[in-house]
Inverse folding.
């Protein structure tokens, strides 16, 4: 991109999206460490914090800023193929997630939902390490979910590795830094690119309250209303 075409810094990501992103980066390794070192109390607490963060991100995907919304970046197979084809030519960065990156986000969120869901029911009450919803299932079901929870973690790790590999390749091949904008929230772009459309801050607060209320309800064992 020539210097004459740069119109300045364009807003790409709002603060909630960036907090969620870096929260995932910190929490997932921390949860692995706590499990490996038998710190199951902290593992459960961090898991509930991750659950709140995932729920918030899902809610924000419907009511958040334009680049945060699922409807703003989810595209069909044709759009994904056209995007990959554009990488061979004069590729122009997009504002927000590209068609391929959008599905990567959905895959990661979906994997985290599955991993968290299994963890909520997993554990053995005889060794004191159980998820908050363990009492709602039988021993055999809990044992099965515990095994799946331990194995599926590596599926999540594989998806994260692919995500990181894509970032590295973009940097190496396209000279496109995807990490910087996720820190600062903006980047320099050319042409007639327009930044994200923001939404009122009260929406983020409402999503945050709902997410933590849900996590608190789960922590309490999901009692009936």
């Amino acid at each position: 991109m020539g210097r004459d075409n740069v119109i300045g810094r364009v807003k790409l990501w709002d603060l909630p999206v960036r907090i969620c992103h870096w929260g995932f980066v910190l929490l997932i390794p921390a949860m692995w460490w706590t499990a490996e070192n038998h710190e199951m109390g902290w593992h459960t607490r961090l898991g509930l914090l991750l659950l709140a963060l995932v729920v918030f991100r899902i809610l924000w995907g419907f009511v958040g800023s334009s680049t945060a919304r699922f409807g703003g970046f989810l595209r069909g197979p044709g759009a994904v193929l056209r995007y990959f084809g554009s990488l061979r030519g004069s590729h122009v960065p997009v504002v927000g997630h590209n068609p391929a990156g959008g599905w990567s986000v959905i895959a990661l969120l979906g994997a985290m939902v599955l991993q968290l869901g299994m963890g909520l029911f997993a554990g053995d009450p005889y060794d004191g390490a159980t998820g908050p919803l363990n009492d709602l299932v039988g021993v055999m079901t809990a044992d099965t979910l515990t095994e799946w929870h331990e194995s599926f973690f590596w599926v999540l790790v594989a998806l994260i590795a692919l995500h990181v590999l894509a970032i590295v390749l973009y940097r190496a091949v396209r000279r496109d830094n995807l990490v910087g904008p996720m820190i600062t929230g903006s980047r320099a772009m050319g042409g007639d690119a327009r930044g994200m459309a923001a939404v009122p801050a009260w929406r983020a607060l409402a999503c945050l309250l709902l997410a933590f209320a849900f996590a608190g309800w789960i922590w309490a064992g999901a009692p009936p209303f």
The chain has a mean pLDDT of 90.
